[in-house]
Amino acid sequence: MKNKYLKLVFIIFLVLFAITALKSSSAIVDVEIDQEIEDLNLKIKNQKKQIETLQARQKEYQAQIEANRNDQINLNGQLAIIENRLGKTQLDIEETNLEIDKISLEIRKVEIDTENLTSKIESQKKHISNLLRLVYKQEQVTALEALLLNNSLSDFLNQIKYLEDANNQIGESVKELKQQKEQLDKNRETLNEKSKEMTDLKTKLEEKKDSLIYEQDNKSNILEETRLSEKAFQALLSKARIEQNQAQAEIANAENLIRQKMSQKDKDRLNNSDSTIGWPVNKNYITTSFHDPDYPYRKIIGEHPAVDIRAAQGSTLYAAADGYVAKVKYDGSKAYAYIMIIHGDNLATVYGHVSATYVSVDQYVTRGQVIGKTGGTPGTTGTGSFSSGPHLHFEVRKNGLPVNPLNYLP
Do 288 and 146 reside in the same domain of the chain? Predict the structure, then answer.
């Protein structure tokens, strides 16, 4: 019986020794990992400082853009605005790249912590499992047996304390395991969030790159049209204003005319149709918003009455809702070309910078029906005097007046 008891005491000491060794080994690993995470934190801090510096420079460009926009409209001023927009867009791209690098470092930091936690959890589970199996595989010694085998009550109480200490430390290890598991779950949530943020940033980067191309095309188009001649630029301005005013007048008149001449049957059909506005091209990045304060031609042709949706030259164009075609302005030249459709609920839509049309006036179309192709590349069919690159100019009109399309698009 004494051998049996001594065997149990030995196992208790084995448990205490193993747990102590496990903690010591874990502490060494923690120091190494802490150093690696500290290095990552320094890199992240450096990325943040670079981003702050870029943001300060972006504000300078924006201030210059505003100052030039308030000056008299001339060729040099317009080119200065474009140059500043180009500079700001390039900084936007650089900032987004830095943000991507920063997120990559943050993801790596969480991955390191996750790998460490996973290793700790598996190691502790294995050790505790093995030690518990050793303890509980032994035959139990009763309190009376332990008391009789010890030379004194003090020795007996010491043995009981060793056993209690072992159980307490195993309990503490189990508690640590639970905390590590909770932290591991949080890390996984953080990684999912960071991964989504990374995806969003990469999408943003592509959008900024497209914006840069638009600005470069815009500059090239103005230089080509004017040959750096102020006289030619002013002639271009005059042509653009006439073109814009004419288009707005034609659109308003066309809507009034077709609604007046519609039969009651046509009106009933229109009122009973689906006037819910959908995306006229595959849902994409908005390059210019409704009444955009940064619209480069704001002082030239007025407020931007639409949203510009990024779309490659020649993209398929769809009717945004059921309705009647009220106007098709397209002659195959470079003059501004567009399609206008009226819908129920006193709504109408306009599709500008089209490079091809497949519908005619008075034709009834349904939502999603192909009505043409997009354009917008400077100097191409249907683009008009000013364009910043391939896109769709999309207007929504309510009771004859332009309203923000984003209030209607899904």
Answer: no
Predicted local distance difference test score (pLDDT) of residue 266: 86
Within 10 A of 267 (CB to CB), how many other CB atoms are there? Answer: 12
Long-range contacts formed by 201-206: CB under 8 A, 24+ apart? 201/96, 201/99, 201/100, 201/103, 202/100, 204/96, 205/93, 205/96, 205/97, 205/100
Domain final residue, candidates 224, 250, 275: 224
Range of the domain at 163: 2-224
Both structure tokens of 295: 């619209």
Boundary-marking domain end, from 224, 248, 273: 224
- pLDDT per residue as tens digits for the range 34-81: 788 888 889 999 999 999 999 999 888 888 877 777 776 888 888 888
Q: Do residues 288 and 141 share a domain? A: no
Looking at the fold, whether 270 and 208 belong to one and the same domain comes out as no
Q: Six-digit token pair at 344?
A: 């129920």
pLDDT tens track for 117-166:
888 788 777 766 766 665 554 444 444 444 444 445 455 445 455 555 55
| pTM of the predicted model over 0.70 | no
Average pLDDT over residues 358-385: 93
CB 355 within 8 Å of CB 367:
no
pLDDT digits (tens, 9 = 90+) for 333-353: 999 999 999 999 999 999 999
Distances (CA, A) of 7 to 139, 141, 164, 170, 272: 10, 10, 16, 19, 90
Domain count across the chain: 2
Cα–Cα dist 306/214, whole Å: 17
